[in-house]
Amino acid sequence: MKKSLLFALALPLLSACTTDKPDRETQALAGLYTLQGVMEMGSLLRLRADGSFEGNVAYGAADGYAKGTWRRVGGQVVLKPKAVIGLGELFRDRALRVDGLCLRIAAEEGGGCYLRSPH
Q1: Cα 113–Cα 20–Cα 57 angle in degrees, nearest 5
Q2: pLDDT category of residue 22 using cuts at 50, 70 and 90
Q3: Which residue, of 2, 4, 77, 103, has the greatest Cβ tally within 10 A?
Q4: How open is the CA angle 96-26-84, to the nearest 5 degrees?
């Protein structure tokens, strides 16, 4: 009986220890980013400290939305959408280079930068 009670009390603690929590450097990237430097396109990207993201994009009359997870891999932020609508496909498996307050899109993919908002 005592062993069962001890196990029941220890289980939540053990599961908390194995949670894949992003490190501080990764969590520091969390915030709201606005796309800059891409003509006729608007986009917002929100990276959350828990490793989730939401993004929206508009180009002319077309728009889209994506949400999923993100992680830092070396000097890049890699997005892995789980739900995508319309132009949200642009977020699929996207790797953005970390450059100060900017998450840069590769030049061959149109360039531009997601600039971090001050708030």
Answers
A1: 25
A2: low
A3: 103
A4: 50
